[in-house]
Amino acid sequence: MRKLAIILLTVTLGWAQQPALAAGSAAASAGAGDGARLSDPAVGRVLCSEPGRVFADLPASTRAEMLAYYIGGRVVPKDTDLGEKARLDTVTNDFLHITTSVCRSVQLRLLTKGGRDTVVAVVETVKTPVPDSRISFYDTRWRELSAKKVMGRLPRLADFVRRGADAKKAAVALADVDFPMMTLDFEGPGFGTLVARQRLKEFYSASDYKRLAPVLADEVRYAVSGAKLVRQ
User: Fold this and answer.
1) Which among 46, 77, 119, 149 is placed 20 to 30 Å from 106, CA to CA?
2) DSSP states of 148-199
3) In contact, 75 and 82? CB cutoff 8 Å
4) Are 20 and 45 in contact (CB under 8 A)?
């Protein structure tokens, strides 16, 4: 078992030195169900090649070591450069969730149309008293892409206005919202749905939220469709 772990670690450490894979081949994605452990996950190569903008305090070698342990069947927390504990929670072929500190987590989801068209969707969530997320997009060499290319525009509070709600009442209610708190999570079979949830109920007092509740839905969903996210 120890020999196997050493071999896995040696191979995986090499990923950090390679350009990111033009990831997400159809053959590899077959059978990458929720929580499935693969010997060579495409998203793992992207994780290990990230240059330090998303994982500034988690060196590539540490990420590779965590991945090797996960592939070997163990979740082993590792120290970050800031003295926090990072933990790789979930890995499939095209999705992973990593906790980088007590107050931050990151999701990587490969959006693949085929060939070299793979997009890396990065969701960063800060676990303040009211959690808040942001999403950004990159190619597999970690060059940032416009959100317009992938989902038209980034989620905003106006997207939560209920269908059929009075437009004027909604505009008045939203005008007083200074902090449009929302979380983003890839969920469902194959982590194929991005769920945006507005968290204003946790931020505002009950009396203040009463003005917003009639016009705002709790969540908005986007389906993974090739290299795009399409609102449902």
Assistant:
1) 149
2) HHHHSS---GGGGBPTT--HHHHHHHHHT-S---EEEEEESGGG-EEEEEE-
3) no
4) yes
